Amino acid sequence: MLTDHYELTMLQAALRSGAAHRRAVFEVFARRLPHGRRYGVVAGTGRVMDALAEFRFGEQELAFLRERHVVDEPTLDFLAGYRFSGNVHGYGEGECYFPGSPIMVVDGTFAEAVLLETVILSILNHDSAVASAASRMVHAAGGRPIIEMGSRRTHEYAAVAAARAAYLAGFASTSNLMAGHAYGVPTAGTSAHAFTLLHASEYEAFQAQIDSLGTGTTLLVDTYDVAKAVRTAVELAGPGLGAVRIDSGDLAVAAHEVRRLLDGLGATRTRIVVTSDLDEYAIAALAAAPVDGYGVGTSVVTGSGAPTAAMVYKLVAREDDEGVLRPVAKRSVGKPSKGGRKTAFRALEDGVAAAELVTTEPGAATPEGARPLLRALVREGEIVGHEPLATARERHLASVAELPVLAHQLSQGDPVIPTVFS
Amino acid sequence: MLTDHYELTMLQAALRSGAAHRRAVFEVFARRLPHGRRYGVVAGTGRVMDALAEFRFGEQELAFLRERHVVDEPTLDFLAGYRFSGNVHGYGEGECYFPGSPIMVVDGTFAEAVLLETVILSILNHDSAVASAASRMVHAAGGRPIIEMGSRRTHEYAAVAAARAAYLAGFASTSNLMAGHAYGVPTAGTSAHAFTLLHASEYEAFQAQIDSLGTGTTLLVDTYDVAKAVRTAVELAGPGLGAVRIDSGDLAVAAHEVRRLLDGLGATRTRIVVTSDLDEYAIAALAAAPVDGYGVGTSVVTGSGAPTAAMVYKLVAREDDEGVLRPVAKRSVGKPSKGGRKTAFRALEDGVAAAELVTTEPGAATPEGARPLLRALVREGEIVGHEPLATARERHLASVAELPVLAHQLSQGDPVIPTVFS
User: Fold this and answer.
1) How far A121 CA lies from chain B's nearest CA (Å)?
2) Chain A window 341-400: which residues touch B at a Cβ cutoff of 8 Å?
3) Residue B337 has pLDDT above 80, yes or no
4) Which residues, if any, are the signal sequence (chains A, B) (predicted)?
5) Which region holds residue A410: left if phi is over 0, alpha if psi is between -120 and 50, else beta?
6) What angle do CA B80, B81, B84 make, to 5 degrees?
7) Contacts of A204 in chain B (CB under 8 A)
8) For residues B345 and B371, is the Cβ–Cβ distance under 8 A?
9) CA B5 to CA A168: how far, in whole Å?
10) Chain A residue with the nearest C-alpha to that of B62
11) Of all helices (H) and strands (E), which one includes residue B325?
12) Hey, are the CB atoms on B2 and A156 less than 8 Å from each other?
């Protein structure tokens, strides 16, 4: 039922006209990257496969559709037996993408494929928006670990998917326990101001935390006075204190002061974690500060200014009355589509990405010095593309390493490689 | 398990220090409205109560927490028996809010209340962001109905909550079927370009749609040539054609042209629905165009530039060693909190909102000419605040009608009424 009303009414009309069972090819692509971004990151592919496996209409749902007169009886019969039996190819999860990249290609009957539009786009648009922002932050952090801690700033289940997407783009861990449970993302956490305020004094609060969690814990030091808190922390935990967290003020200034303090107290190995509305720009600005890790919330789960990846799902080919697959394209002003089923390759020069090659030529061979971008995800209804999240994480690392260095400029600009259609 | 790692480790430390069972009052508030907004809209309250009723740790979850060594055995025992037994008061869903409004007040033991931080904030931040944007769009539309159709631009379950939030802020319907099923939001839909492209010609596609869905349907007229499509539509459906949808081009110009064409063909009652990246500004710009309805996607589900409401959940009072409830507040630079349990009233002058009165005075009487803003949601663990979504929709209508007219300026500015603390 994660679908739109019009998918079902179109299905009804197509069942009646007989066109519903024509073979149809839909493609997911983005007309453009979010404003000023140099590359996008595909994420959600694994979740699309999970959703596809569960995409069914149960009795409750059918009863609702009947009662509300959303569709007629023949359509309800079709939905009751719905099972996607076609093929899906797509960019590997974690792969970088560019405008026009055929990120996912769904090949089935119109009836089977049209119903998947909403859920496929929901997942890819959300997860890719998060991963695309996260990837920039990871680069800005230059090897320092980032904890994703934005669950409270986004829908409760979007939070779980966001933690997964940030992790595959290179974040070290998440605060979200469900993401740990569902996807194996490492979880981490520090402490909140409420914990300090709950106790009669900061001293008591730190003592309680150390008693329970050990000296390796991370103490939050900005509830009252940062310098005083740091002294109390080291007094209680000793120089082996794991880390301190600073969540307010000028983080660069505070980090330098806290580092000096910690070193003066002999806690030279105590790490400094900073949080507080960080985004890729703020992280980059802290590159020279003695920071050992970042916690990022709002900006990563909301795509740092681009909360959706603006991907669309368009019919690019369908069988005609003679059973021949024909390219189709709309000609809407400003939003035309390119007809024909596509495949894509990343052209490389000396190991550096040079262009996104997108072709409608059937069975096109991989051009020399290029690598193919589409992999099989679903074959005749059977999911064949499942892979561990670690594989997507590694793929992202490799894909982003291959981009020209300009890809990492945070300033606004054009896509770092051109998309070449043929 | 929709909670953060640190909520559980804080719980563990507080269980050990003995502070876990102290009475604690947490409050949800926003330090500011999204940039330039004049008011915010509370949404998600009903969903918070649903989430609270389901907030439990099952065997699978406990096994995960044990295996990952997230918390120790006494904490796991506490979680296994977790049940919120405290009280929650909150702004009525649909109510307008301002900086510092105590949107939700959670009063329980620290252990019971701290665990709810993440899920309460997730829901309120997401749903209120959507409702706050939706409310502006509804006003800009000036009585013309708006369909929410942004499911594909946000996480698949966030989409369901977004449809609910947009509806309570005044949208007419949603494309999201699950929102119809789960929350009774009216669902609606038109047709996609894929349906036209599936058929051999626009003529055949329109015929198929009319055959199946009747002449009252909405035909999409911008796949190829708008004028030609409108003529075909009226030729096939007759002057009783329900509506046409335009999804590209200069919508104001196109709407005028299509209206002229329809009127010339005798289809004077055929409605014109426009879609295509509309937000409150684009809707306002179409006020003088012959448009009968809007479809809004991306901008409403992403909060039109403010995808999260930036609400926080802060400890404002807790029992001390003598069992006396004491106000507490942090003093973090730039992010201080105000201690003490709060209640709030909307001061009115001649029926127009004049100020948000927030007081920490226990049992404060409603000031003359003001109305109280907090209502009971949960009493000793029992949910007492459930209400139909229609009630929240009516409350929003009344609350927004009470605001000074300046509230509806789309230009950036300050909150339309001041928050007065006492």
Assistant:
1) 5
2) none
3) no
4) none
5) alpha
6) 120
7) 17
8) yes
9) 19
10) A181
11) strand B325-327
12) yes
pLDDT value of position B1: 84
Q: Is A279 on the interface with B (CB under 8 A)?
A: no
Residue B188 one-letter amino acid: A
B328 in contact with A, Cβ within 8 Å: yes
Spatial distance between the Cα atoms of A165 and A183, rounded to a whole number of angstroms:
10
Residue to mutate among A64, A78, A155, A325, with most B CBs inside 10 A, is: A155
Closest by Cβ to B19, choosing from A2, A199, A248: A199
pLDDT band for B91, please (50, 70, 90 cuts). Answer: very high
- Chain centroid to Cα A267, Å, comes to 37
Closest by Cα among B67, B9, B68 to A212: B9
- pLDDT class of A336 with cuts at 50, 70, 90: confident
Q: Is A16 part of the contact surface with chain B (CB cutoff 8 Å)?
A: yes
Question: Does position A135 have pLDDT exceeding 90, yes or no?
Answer: yes
User: Where does A33-144 show beta strands of DSSP type E?
Assistant: 40-41, 87-91, 96-97, 104-109
Among residues 76-105 of chain A, which lie with CB inside 8 Å of chain B? none
Q: What's the rounded Cα separation, in Å, for the pair A344 and A370? A: 10
The residue behind tokens 């959507």 is: B130
Chain A segment 102-141 residues within 8 A of B by beta carbon are 110, 114, 117-119, 121-123, 125-126
What integer is the mean pLDDT of A22-45? 96
For residues B319 and B327, what is the distance between their CA atoms, to the nearest angstrom? 9
Model pLDDT for residues A354-369, shown as the tens digit of each residue? 999 999 998 899 999 9
From chain A, the residues in CB contact with B119 under 8 A are: 156
Sorted by where each starts, the structural domains of chain A and their CATH numbers stand as 5-130+306-421 (3.20.140.10), 151-303 (3.20.20.70)
Q: For residue B98, give every residue at least 6 positions away whose Cβ sits within 8 Å of its Cβ, in sequence order, or none.
A: B33, B39, B40, B356, B415, B417, B418, B419
Contacts of A209 in chain B (CB under 8 A): 10, 13
pLDDT digits (tens, 9 = 90+) for A368-380: 999 999 999 999 9
pLDDT at A389: 98
Map tokens 């649909």 to a residue. Answer: B94
User: What percent of chain A stands above pLDDT 70?
Assistant: 100
Which residues neighbour A324 within 8 Å (Cβ) at sequence distance 6 or greater?
A: none
- Give CA separation, B189 vs A3, A386, B240, in Å: 11, 34, 18
Please state the separation of Cα A75 from the chain's center in Å. Answer: 34
